[in-house]
Structure formats: structure tokens, C-alpha cells
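User: Hello, can you help with two protein structures?

Assistant: Certainly.
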Amino acid sequence: MSEPLVFVLAAIALIGGSLFYLFFYRSWHRRRELQQPFPEPWRRLLVEQVPLYSRLSDAHKSRLENLVQLFISEKDFYECDGFEIDDRVRVTIAGHACLLLLERAFYEYDDVKSILVYPDIYRVQDTDSDGLVVSTSDETRAGEAWSHGRVILAWSQCELAISHPHGPHNVILHEFAHQLDYLDGTADGAPPLSGDQAKQWQDTMTEAWDHLRHRLQHHHKPWLDPYGATEPAEFFAVLTEAFYQQPHHLRHEKPGVYDVLCRFYRFDPEHMRGHYQ
């Protein structure tokens, strides 16, 4: 075989391999992963650690298991401050995070690369710049979501959500809602939408945001965790917590908001049905 022919064949193989990796490898890997049976110990952990799992239809249970399987196979978990990560931690975080994708595509988490887990609320140093003046402050946090695919969680706060499944707080749902918000490049409280759905979202959420802030300014009891009034990105994340944890309350207080969240997540947690139109 001549040297030029060898070169051409090698180039074709290299190009073919590159194209396969870029366009087909991820789908091939996911199909292969889902050919493996879902581990029974993981299913028991979903029952114990993800309260909503037991109330799902059989189809949604199977869907969540597939999502968890892919999530754990693709995402990197990192131990922080001596915290030890085991299957209980992985399945708990993956199970809650993937509730947001029951009727959405798993590729919406493609940008999520790593999950860092601290044993408890942790401290960070925040820097703020105002012109020439730079100030720093120490803050305590239960979780964070970064635009480049990093999620940070305090395990004690994850367990709090498990023990209070109908309470207002679920740090896992909160931070992964931020990741969906980042899909259009910035966390601004409005995930990627188009057409009538985008207009309905804008009109409904603006009215609800203004109403929440008005109630707080006049010292009236808010219909949502006040943290949601700090900025639009937090408003969406806190609403997502309420949507999955307290759907009856949210639907009663703000039916329009509940409706646009049903349309976005394509799921109705109060009635446990999907493909919401």
C-alpha cells in the first residue's frame, strides 16, 4: 500500500472518528447505559430519599430511573470538607434534580459537569466592586449554581428537603432550576421560551413578581418565600421549589403562575400527569 494511500485512509479514519464522537458518541453511550438494568438498591433509595417518587405513575417512575442512571454515569461528584459521597448521596441528588426533567429532555443538563457536596452550610468570601471601591464579605450558603456547569450543595440542606417534603425549601430543586435558567446563557428568571409561551411567561411572572414585592414592602404575609423577591433568577428557582413541594398552595395562591410552570415543565405535580399543554 502506497504511502499517500495510507495517509488518506488514516485521515478518513480520523475524520470519521471525530464525527462519531462529536455527533453520535453521546447518544450511543446513553443507549448503552440504559441497556443496563436499574440497580434495585438505587430504587430503594429513590423510595426513601425522593418522596415524590412513590406518588409517580409507573411510566414516570421508569422515566425518572432512566434519568438518574444517565445523570450518575455522566456527572462528576466531588467531596468537600471531608464529606464522603456514596450511592445514597448520588441517587438523592440525581433523583431530585431529574424531577425537573420528567417531561423534558436530558440534554438540558448536558452543561452540568460537576456536583460538589459539603457536609453542611459552608462559608464563602464574596467580593463586590463599586467603581474604585472593592469590598469583601463572608457569606454562608446552602448551595450555588454556576454558569459553567458546577453545582454546589450542602448535604444537611438536602436532607432537610427529604424530611420536609411539603416544606418550602429544596436546595437541589433550587440549584438545578438555576441550571435550566442558564440554558439561554444567563440566569435572569426566564428560561428559553418562544412565541406565545414566552409572552405568557413574561406577563404572568412580571405581575407575580411585582405582587410579591408589593406585599413584602407593605409588611403583608407573602405567598412565596421572601428570598424569591431578591432578584428574578431567585424568583424562578424559589417558584420551582414551591411548584414541586407545595403545588396545591401555589395553584391556590397564583393559578396563572402555576399554569405557566406546568407548561414549562410539561408536568402537573398536583395531579401527577405529564404532557401538559
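That covers the first. Now for the second protein you mentioned:
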Amino acid sequence: MVGIGDVERLVGELPGTEETTRYGRRTWAVGGKGYAWERPFSKADLKRYGDETPPAGEILAIVVEDLAEKEAVLAARAGDGFFTIPHFNGYAAVLVELEKVSEPVLREALLDGWLVHAPADLAKAHLDGEATER
């Protein structure tokens, strides 16, 4: 149960993160590549839901390592607000309903997305720093 302000704070903890705009949506990137972005539903997305009610509230997209990881995340985290839509078929990213996800789960998902694109030396330094903090 978080909001976009919490996303801003959590991505601010990930070194090298830059906020940008892509396709008119606020995006957070590392190494010049987006790893998380606001993802409201388009008219086409809503039409695909037909008679079903689409998830409400703020939606965040987060990249994952690959399609196998996407399936694993969706299987493990469906109850935490993680889902996908047809537009994301074949794309290594998941969607998250911010009002359903807890902060610790979102923090982990953002870190995993950040690690997909973070330069190796930056990722190692950050992860080593986290290990010494524990």
C-alpha cells in the first residue's frame, strides 16, 4: 500500500538513478535505460478488459531480467498486486498496483529492476554496501 511518492523515495536510494520522461510518462533509469515507469492504462488497454474491471489506482511498470523471471515473479507475487496485460506479452516487465503492494516487496522489485540495467561496478558497490549495513 504505497503511492508514487514512495516510489520516488525508493528509487532515490538506488545510485545512478535518473528521472526522465519517455512516451510522456515519468521514468526512472540507470545507465541510460529505464527500469521503472508510471504506466496508466491506455484506451486500448481498457478495451481489452471487456466486461472485467481493470485494476484501479496508480500502476508502475518494472523491468525484470527475462521472460522466465517475469513468469516467476507473476506466479510468486500475484497476491501482492503484480500482474501483466496483453500489451506486455513477450516483454520482460511486470505491472504493479501500488495500492496493493507493500513497501518491502516494492523495494525488492525496484532493486531487481535496477540491477537489470545498472553498470556492473555500480551494482556491486551498492550490493556490497547493503551487505555491510545489515
